[in-house]
Amino acid sequence: METTREGIVCNNLDQMDVVFDRTEVLHDTPTSYCPGCSHSVVHRLIMEVIEELGILGDTIGVAPVGCSVFAYHFMNVDMQQAAHGRATAVATGIKRVLPDKIVYTYQGDGDLAAIGTAETIHTINRGENIVMIFINNGIYGMTGGQMAPTTLEGDVTSTTPHGRDTLIQGHAIKITEMAAIMDGAYYVTRQAVNSAKTVRKCKKAIKQAFQNQIDGKIGTNFVEVVSNCPSGWKMTPIEANKKIDEQVLDYYPLGDLKTPPKGA
Amino acid sequence: MGKKLLMKGNEALAEAAIRAGVKGYFGYPITPQSELLEYMATNLDSRGGVFLQAESEVAAINMVYGASGTGTRVMTSTSSPGFSLMQEGISYMACAELPCLLVNVVRGGPGLGTIQPSQGDYFQAVKGGGHGDYKLIVLAPNSVQEMADLVYLGFDLTDKYRNPVLILADGALGQMMESVEFPEYNVEEHFVDHSSWTTVGRENGREQHYITSLHLLSEKMEEINVHLQDKYKKIQENETRFESIQTEDADILIVAFGLSSRSSQKALELAREQGLKVGILRPITLFPFPSDELKHLANSVKGILVVEMNAGQMVEDVRLAVGSNVPVDFYGRMGGMIPQPDEIVDKIKDLYKQVKI
Ligand SMILES: Cc1ncc(C[n+]2csc(CCOP(=O)(O)OP(=O)(O)O)c2C)c(N)n1
Ligand code: SF4
Ligand SMILES: [Mg+2]
């Protein structure tokens, strides 16, 4: 009898093929995320990409304020924790003085598309050579489920108890579409992680974003990940992932919004 | 020392920063400090640094945060309304112990106020300014020469203590032209190795470095606070700087910093001509505040007059230092007005009558 790293007891471990393993770039520690939360999945994808691209020694990440505020306890990468909304300004400071390093930000929708909107827009407009990962879960997870700028019309949150009324609270913001029209953007894409298929695609997009930065392509690489928040949405993870397919993707359709011109 | 140059205070400060090896400058235009930003825009890139005009002071201070976290010598400058916007970021930097040089070329407030010189941001500068218990090291120049000199000192102190340093100037010091000589300063000799904590990538698989000001456990957060307070105590013990002018035989002691110390100097000359024994204590560091020196002088002088370009802010620290040992009076002008020497002399005469010498 042997025990795997995940604590699974098994009597023929040495005869089994390893088909899935945790990348070393993730800390060997449980995350603080709720079961089924997209944050965990996206963390893993980014860390796998960093490992596969062999850039750990050159990479600096920036964590936001939100559920992923402790990202540096899960991502075993040099990181800076930024004030709420300011991750891309912090990343700009890093990248400008160390232009040869690989810099990425990781932000929720409140962080990136509400309090940090000015920084978001101007970072992309300057074409900062960084990767921006945008976790759009349509809610303020960390503070207990208030309306986010991305909350869909009609959705109930603790600050839209009767559902989001666009006449009062405005519309779910399409910040990724805004990113795509800016000349400073190099690559803008919207992905999801609510199924095995979308997870695979999402990883490819994240890898492309980092590769663009490594290749010195001029401009910002922006990856939105349409995400769930089972706790904030008051659903099981399965229900939450279904809601993404049935409602969220209608409003936030997946796909590339800006790709570099061929041969660029 | 190099040769004497005639320069504006803002430009002298910028030139000194470049000579001190600043590698990153992030700022946003605001009068009366814009010459500093423009000087950096014109000169920093060609002299080995990076200049970037941010979209706001909020962004600028967070760019400073990011760059500082890589161990880069970095700074920003602004004027009062912009400094208010930077407070959140400064609080984060104080907690994360990130070195940087901050410059506030103060203008009259509150609100949008005026673009004329003021010392109305004293409290904000020396009492923390943002949220939480923290202190900046605050340096107060009173000449164009010191606008340059205190830059070198500021960078050395910010590296030594891993604490943001603020140069608290004012609109007049920024705008006025005086001669200035830039001291010899060998950047390499002043280099402080921060590589044990900076975030530059886990080269050769070394252990992770991260920069944060978040510690959810109260025990841990208290520990951080205790550490910061210990540091401030050390700074108080070792870094207090002031200038004493004719304090030996003084009956009346003027306490003034920055531009108001210049008016006070003139007032001292006028008063001495009339046989009034006046001295000046000019704090150069506002935090740490020269409380011990004040306590000491309170034993020999009969009265203290604090002169400021505000409604009376530093006077509170003077009163805290001297207690009720000696009467403390205040003279201030606000909203961009500068205390005039004859007004100060009148105030000195009043004080003389009050203390019955
Ligand atoms: C200046 C400031 N305002 C408010 C907060 C409180 N706050 C913490 S996280 C958060 C919302 C985060 O939501 P989001 O960015 O969507 O991240 P999520 O938790 O959903 O991943 C808020 C408002 C704060 N920390 N700082
Ligand atoms: S509150 Fe929502 S976003 Fe936060 S960890 Fe839980 S499920 Fe994830
Ligand atoms: Mg969210």
Question: Describe it for me?
Answer:
The complex is a heterodimer of chains A (264) and B (357). In chain A, 36% of the residues lie in helices and 19% in strands. By secondary structure, chain A is α/β, with parallel strands linked by helices. Chain A has a single domain (34-258), classed as Thiamin diphosphate (ThDP)-binding fold, Pyr/PP domains (Rossmann fold, 3-Layer(aba) Sandwich). Chain A has a seven-stranded mixed β-sheet, sandwiched between helices. Chain A has a two-stranded antiparallel sheet with strand order 1-2. With 357 residues, chain B is of the alpha/beta class. Chain B has two domains: 5-198 and 229-236, Rossmann fold (3-Layer(aba) Sandwich); 242-355, Rossmann fold (3-Layer(aba) Sandwich). Helix content of chain B is 41%, strand content 18%. Chain B has helices at residues 9-19, 34-43, 57-68, 80-96, 122-126, 144-161, 171-175, 218-238, 258-273, 291-298, 314-322, 341-355; strands at residues 5-8, 24-27, 50-53, 74-78, 101-106, 137-139, 165-170, 177-180, 210-211, 242-245, 252-255, 278-283, 285-287, 303-308, 328-332. In chain B, strand 4, helix 4 and strand 5 form a beta-alpha-beta unit. The N and C termini of chain B lie far apart (45 Å). The mean pLDDT of chain B is 97. Strand 4 of chain A pairs parallel with strand 9 of chain B, so a sheet runs across the interface.
Secondary structure: helix percent of chain B: 40-55%
Average residue-wise pLDDT of chain A:
95
Q: Which CATH class of the largest domain in chain B is shown?
A: Alpha Beta
Strand percent estimate of chain A: 15-25%
Q: How many separate domains of chain B?
A: 2
Q: Give the largest chain-chain interface (CB within 8 Å).
A: A-B, 35 and 40 residues
Query: What gyration radius of chain A follows from the Cα positions, in whole Å?
Result: 18 Å
- The SSE order of chain B reads EHEHEHEHEHEHEHEEHEEHEEHEHEH
The strand count of chain B comes to 15
- Examine the coordinates and then state which fold CATH places here, giving the name of the CATH topology of chain A: Rossmann fold
Largest sheet of chain A: 7 strands, mixed
Unreliable segments of chain B (pLDDT under 50, ≥5 consecutive)? none
**Helix and strand composition category of chain A:** alpha/beta
Radius of gyration of chain B: 21 Å
What characterizes the major β-sheet of chain B?
7 strands, mixed
